[in-house]
Amino acid sequence: MTITDNTTTNPTNSTIHPSELRQLRLEDPRTRILDVRTGAEFESVHIPGSYNVPLDQLSEHIDAFAEFDRPVVLVCLSGNRASTAQEKLNAAGKTNLRVLEGGIGAWQTAGGDVVKGAEKWALDRQVRGVAGSLVLGSILASLKFPKARFLAGGVGFGLLFSALSNTCAMGMLLAKLPYNRGPECVIDDVLADMRD
User: Is 50 exceeded by the pLDDT of residue 8?
Assistant: First the structure.
């Protein structure tokens, strides 16, 4: 088994391929999988035995998770939120972390087992839908109200800024909607379960 491990040179770039994760789980049952997607995304599909702590909640309790001594593999939809979580945890002193390459989609493509629930739109799909609707709506509205075109420009600027900064304000706002909330995440309970 080969695990990409750059923890000595660049701890924020250590990743693990789905096939390597399957092998690691067999070899080291102490390894925990932490899914940082929204509760609704997690309920839709997740890796069996994984724990869900949405990225915004993880950020609020970063020190408690950094003190957790077992190896952790971070999972999200594509790897972006998991990489953000890894950077924050590394900054807080946790080094035995990996990010699942390609996220939950790559895990499924590689034949990994998943638990499926009611399917909901992933957060990135919701962002594309809202951004597209705002642009289309503002262009149509600009036929009658010419200044409405500035909304389309604002959305375009926001998308460009999102790409350059690797953040997404719209995604963070959408994550707070009831649609994207799963069961309440009680951090102390998650940490206790992860330690067992």
Answer: no
